[in-house]
Write a structure and sequence with these properties.
Oligomer: single chain
Largest sheet: 7 strands, mixed
Strand content: 15-25%
Strand order of the largest sheet: 14-15-16-13-12-17-18
Structural class: alpha/beta
Radius of gyration: 24 Å
Shape: globular
Distance between the termini: 83 Å
Mean pLDDT: 98
């Protein structure tokens, strides 16, 4: 019997499911059990060609529609997505292993939020009139053309919408390649957009590994590339896109600091640390994995953190009482376990967790290391798993300098009751998406993205419009045009 997660076909192109079994088979593994629940096939050159050709044709027609008409389609897609939230959340759990308790509120819902928000903005994308005495200039905001989205495996539905919604609102088309680890959810986004009235070919999804991504990024018909992924992948894709002078948005990794001052509300700060390290089993790029805790409250913080971490419920992700799921894959689990061993060998003090959970599937215990120093590997490299590093600090100036001493700059958080200090410290932290007395909130209304090696450009908010459109300026002379001869 076919598993319910098995899609009708591997790709969604020109408004329909398309199969080509001559591509490399990609097994879909359910992280909670390790069983193979579906198979898709990597895109062949013929599939890639079909996707790009239909997207290019659809874009020309879509760009002729008014912003109001485009917005209507996106908002309808958001409604359909909300109506189907339960089935989309179950699919997301099969795709990623994340607990249903989490996917029901964080995945298709945030995808729908993006479709609704950019659907609402679409009609407002106007230019401006610039008076110059008798003459004047007007500007037109135009689409870029054909955009490529390359997704990561931690938020497959959300990323498909975070990239697709602003692209489509601006009049572009998109070919989206999900991560080969989580190929299922983006197909449903494409299906829903067609149902909502998007023209066939406007949003295509094709599967594959790096070589498929490479073929998309280097194709001369592609005008823009938006990637969510690791820094090494980002550097490769950025370089490939640059050779064709393509627009890019890069949303990459982080090793973000979360600073807990001595006056912080400890329960609230621990909630922030749990959200910023253990939500999605720690598989979130903006996670605050370096938790700097003031020496005066360190032991109190650690004791209470250990008590609360012990209440995490690991188990079947389809059980809505479970709040901590497996790693996305066996490979990711091995990477994380390797970092845990490094932490132990480097002399960090293990507070809780520290290994694989005794159950089937790819579960790693929520792990906390204390007495971590800035030079330890676990404090420098992105782990992308449920491993929290707690570091001590004495003074504000010291902790700001240490927090900034990293190649990354995606997020940063500060917990304190002193609001002057909160804003002063956040103002000096080198990060793009910051939090005060909170962590990892990412509403579509707020820009999201990093500085330094954590990326270029911003996703979400009105900022995203700038990355999916370009401005044409037109100078209008009202009198005669003169020349020197």
């Amino acid at each position: 019997m076919t598993h319910p997660a098995q899609p009708k076909a591997s790709h969604f192109i020109n408004g329909a499911y398309v199969e080509d079994t001559s591509g490399t088979p990609i097994p879909v593994i359910y992280a909670a059990t390790g069983e193979e629940i579906a198979t898709v096939y990597a895109a062949t050159p013929a599939i890639i060609e079909q996707a790009l050709t239909s997207a290019q044709a659809a874009q020309k027609e879509w760009a002729k529609k008014t912003g109001t008409e485009r917005g209507r389609v996106l908002r309808r897609a958001a409604e359909i997505m909300r109506e189907r939230n339960h089935e989309l959340s179950v699919l997301e759990t099969y795709d990623t292993g994340k607990p249903l308790q989490e996917t029901l509120v964080a995945d298709a819902t945030s995808g729908a939020d993006a479709l609704e928000y950019f659907g609402g903005l679409a009609a407002s994308l106007t230019g401006e009139h610039i008076p110059l005495g008798e003459d004047w200039v007007y500007t037109i905001r135009e689409p870029l053309g054909l955009c490529v989205g390359i997704g990561a495996w931690n938020y497959p539905t959300q990323i498909a919408c975070w990239k697709g919604a602003p692209a489509l609102a601006c009049g572009n088309s998109m070919v989206f390649k999900p991560s080969e680890t989580t190929p299922l959810c983006a197909l449903k986004v494409a299906e829903i957009l067609i149902e909502a009235g998007a023209p066939a070919g406007l949003y295509n999804v094709i599967q594959g590994m790096g070589e498929v991504g490479g073929a998309l990024v280097t194709d001369p018909r592609v005008d823009k590339v938006s990637l969510t992924g690791s820094v090494p992948t980002g550097k490769k894709v950025y370089a490939a896109a640059a050779s064709g002078m393509k627009h890019v948005t890069m949303e990459l990794g982080g090793k973000s600091p979360m600073i807990v001052f001595e006056d912080a509300d400890i329960e609230s700060a621990i909630s922030g640390a749990i959200n910023g390290n253990f939500y999605s089993s720690g598989q979130v790029c903006s996670n605050g994995t370096r938790v700097f805790v003031h020496k005066d409250i360190k032991e109190k913080f650690l004791t209470r953190l250990a008590e609360r971490t012990a209440t995490a419920k690991l188990g079947d992700p389809m059980d809505e009482s479970v709040n901590f799921g497996p790693m996305v894959s066996a490979r990711q689990m091995e990477i994380v376990l390797g970092y845990i061993e490094k932490g132990k060998s480097e002399g960090a003090r293990l507070i809780c967790g520290g290994g694989r959970a005794e159950m089937e599937g790819y579960y790693v215990q929520p792990t906390v290391f204390a007495d971590v120093t800035d030079d330890m590997v676990i404090a420098r490299e992105e782990i992308f798993g449920p491993v929290m590093c707690v570091l001590d600090f004495d003074s504000e100036d010291e902790v700001i300098a240490r927090a900034n001493d990293t190649e990354f700059g995606l997020s940063a958080g500060v917990f304190t009751k002193d609001f002057t200090r909160a804003h002063r410290v956040i103002g000096q932290l080198e990060a793009g998406s910051c939090f005060i007395n909170s962590y990892n909130d990412a509403p579509v209304e707020a820009p999201f993205g990093g500085v330094k090696a954590s990326g270029v450009g911003r996703e979400n908010s009105k900022e995203a419009i700038k990355h999916f459109s370009q401005v044409k300026s037109v100078y209008v002379r009202m009198g005669d045009c003169e020349a020197a001869f």
